[in-house]
């Protein structure tokens, strides 16, 4: 169980704001902030390279911590500056093996940046992008996916939890299909890592991208990519530098054997160390406990919202997670965000431009997005409901 009082005492920001923007950037625990500041101080005091040399163990620990969090080998983890960089390393690397007529399969709630990358590669290579149909709840349908597979499918690439809602796509069922047919599987877990337990062995994905600042409660400018040892044998990273590869002779180079082949030499050491602290912090609560509390809060919140006249809940799937989306009759979502900000209540909104296929299908332009995390409270939900009711009356 989560000791909410303790979690809040360890989160300085909870004294200032009601933070329901955890899928934007969660409030960092004090010890993550300290780790970040301490390293920057050390860099200022003795020099950046020298600080890095003194903190080699903490740096290395971050890879171990991430590997423990998602159940992979340390050598299968790359630290990068955000989820997009991690995802792009995997996608654009694999894309170098695509030929005209190949197919990639994705889902309706796919994130815009990923879909733009598919479009760019389709333009360059002539591959076909096929969207897996939804089931009746709006989640990706595994049986529909099974029917779409043929030998031209070169990648299944989906978002686990979309940017615009609580939907949790059936990542494990997709993995079973991908593995049975030997199709590479890339999972965008940007919104799910830290919100719920994630086990890459159970999911069966070959590559997974995540960010530090959202549900992991790490610093901005941090993220990671998981790439399995087997998939790394199948393609090269799209970009190589002298950290990802070694210049072995005048006309030769050798790509390193581990997932650091997706990194650059220069990196955000303070952020990397602090991300390791954030992962340890999440692990110390237990991801099962975090997820159970997230579901409890989100269920309560949806229940309360559903009782307000003019509010329509917008989350898809049978059992949505901690990202709660809704619309309000006659008021655009950005306006709701601004009205709540007056009370130091942090939320945001998601637009058509983030998840076009899904939003178009549902005839939505914008949705209000309130994303909760385990350190939020029932009292905060009460306060939110009270203020929203006043604002839209
Ligand atoms: C589903 C999804 N994927 C990827 C990203 C991109 O993450 P980052 O900003 O860390 O690159 C986001 C960001 O909101 C997202 O919601």
Q: What is the element layout, followed by pairings?
A:
Elements: H1 4-9, E1 18-19, H2 22-25, H3 30-46, H4 48-54, H5 56-70, E2 77-80, H6 83-95, E3 103-107, H7 112-125, E4 128-132, H8 142-148, E5 153-159, H9 171-181, E6 185-188, H10 200-203, E7 207-211, E8 223-227, H11 229-232, E9 245-249, E10 252-255, H12 269-285, H13 287-306, E11 311-313, E12 323-328, H14 333-341, E13 345-346, E14 348-351, H15 356-361, E15 366-371, H16 378-392
Parallel strand pairs: 1-13, 3-4, 3-5, 5-6, 6-7
Antiparallel strand pairs: 2-8, 7-8, 9-10, 11-12, 12-15, 14-15
Bound molecules: pyridoxal-5'-phosphate.
Number of helices: 16
For the record, the count of structural domains works out to 2
Strand order of the largest sheet: 2-8-7-6-5-3-4
| General form | globular
The class by helix and strand makeup works out as alpha/beta
User: From the structure provided, what is the oligomeric state, counting identical versus distinct chains?
Assistant: single chain
The total of beta strands comes to 15
Averaged pLDDT: 98
What would your notes on this structure say?
The chain is of the alpha/beta class and 393 residues long. It folds into 2 domains: 4-25 and 286-392, Aspartate Aminotransferase, domain 1; 31-284, Type I PLP-dependent aspartate aminotransferase-like (Major domain) (Aspartate Aminotransferase, domain 2), CATH 3.40.640. Helix content is 43%, strand content 17%. The chain has 16 helices and 15 strands. The chain has helices at residues 4-9, 22-25, 30-46, 48-54, 56-70, 83-95, 112-125, 142-148, 171-181, 200-203, 229-232, 269-285, 287-306, 333-341, 356-361, 378-392, and strands spanning 18-19, 77-80, 103-107, 128-132, 153-159, 185-188, 207-211, 223-227, 245-249, 252-255, 311-313, 323-328, 345-346, 348-351, 366-371. The strands form 4 sheets. Strands 2-8-7-6-5-3-4 form a 7-stranded mixed sheet, with helices on both faces. α3 (30-46) runs antiparallel to α12 and α13 packs parallel to α16 (378-392). It is globular. The two termini are 37 Å apart. The model has no long low-confidence stretch (mean pLDDT 98). The structure holds pyridoxal-5'-phosphate. Pyridoxal-5'-phosphate (PLP) binds next to α6.
